[in-house]
Amino acid sequence: MKNITEIRWHGRGGQGAKTASLLLADAAFMAGKYVQSFPEYGPERSGAPITAYNRISDERCTVHSNIYNPDYVVVVDETLLESVDVTAGLNPEGAIIINSAKNASELKPLLKGYTGKVFTVDAGSISRKNLGAYFPNTPMLAAIVAVSKCVEPETFMKDMEESYKHKFASKPYVVQGNLDCLSQAMKEVKE
Amino acid sequence: MSIRDRLSGNEAIATAMRQINPDVFAMFPITPSTEIPQYFAQYVADGRVDTEFVCVESEHSSMSACVGAEAAGARAITATSSAGLAFMSEMLFVAASARLPIVLAVACRALTGPININHDYSDSMAVRDSGFIQIYAENNQEAYDNYLQAHRIGETADVRLPVMICEDGFITSHALENIELETDQDVKDFVGEYTPENYLLKAENPLAVGPYGVSGYYMEARVAQAEAMKNAKRAILDVAADFEKKFGRKYGFFEEYKMEDAELVMILMGSSAGTGKAAVDELREQGIKAGLIKVRVFRPFPGEELAEALKNAKAVAVMDKSEGFSACGGPLFADTAGACINMENRPKMIDIVYGLGGRDFTMDQAKRVYARLAKIVETGEVGPVYTHMGQRDKRKEVQ
Question: By the CB < 8 Å criterion, does B34 face chain A?
């Protein structure tokens, strides 16, 4: 049963956590996997905490509940560390990846005694530098791939290039910025 | 040759609609089914279908427009959820009694109140007596496959009934998963053209649709409609057999999972069944004889077949994802218990209402259901027959 990688995303409405979860599923699908990507829906509004999920496996997973014991948690907005129990049920053999300019050691005290690995990546700066705007979900997508290897990173980069070319067919000038976001985040995500 | 893809339940249903290319789509949006007409509107704009896409002012009107179009001899469809289904309910009875094989996609969502956009079956269960055939899906693949079968079932000559294709709101409608799609041509070949024998615009044989039925004739019309619903059972199996021959995926009235020697049986519908199957797998590894039945076709209700499938069961939990306020159990329980009433060795049976308004159904809950069944078999005591599971206050729950 546990040949499934389970990922939980925490973000705020408008930051693209749901979209990142869809893109991760897309990348895993292109790499030949079975995927699930689903958000937890409520009364949606910008800035409110939202949760999205991924299951990635070699065989179809029939479970359709939310994920309570994820292998990985991605925090797209570090202010959520104060208000949401982001490490709830998180596998100590797994990892949490936080969008922050700080070091992991500075954030650990906020993680309620989580004993697993803590990674950070400054997705905000990476996004501003390459896209000129705050789209933290793209760097976070690369960070979860780099840490979890749920998709082979090289395959991922190739598939994403195809995917962006298709998705941004009407505005090809944003393709390179997005790809640069991915490769910079992959390099800079650190424990 | 199937096409490997990944789609949400809503996009899967919209894709099936595009491939079928119906004559009329009367649309009014409501969460979580809104994406279905949204995707379809794109197909219309891109010229991929030549459907008459009518934006009406309410769900009562969307079903009315479908009634008019279908009576005129066209293939008419729509989609809705929750309050929208409740609002069109008057016209659902009209569509069914006028014997118009409209196909309605429902992304099932709770009814108010409190107001809630998430999934349960309070909408579709509230209209279970409307005369629509109702078919439920576990995931996006089944939603797609059920939709491909719907028109043929409804349009069968001795059936002629409208069909509701139900998926779980958000859980299925908005979740991206792998899916096997069929080619446009294969779908067209499978579904075929709609050639009704009689219709309003047939000049050589004019007819009235929806006239008054005096007491001297009303009952005959209702009995004929009841016969049509019985005939639908055969049509559903025939179309499923043909579907399996063409596309390789097997469907029936319900799916039996590890039922060969099962003593403890959970009966449920929709996406929860997938979670239930994973729980059965775990329990089987511990040597517990757990099995599961997923009801796919709720109207017509496969009573005799269910009773047959339960003949070796010792204890059965029927899981209702709607609260019928009967004070003695939900609608799936009522029908299942009724179906078993004349069995030689009836299993003990309980009803558990769960998952209301999007309350998550988990592996842990599924395992607790089987633990309760094991206790019933061990003690011979049924305990409370009708309970609720997944409440915030665990002390209120029967273990």
Answer: no
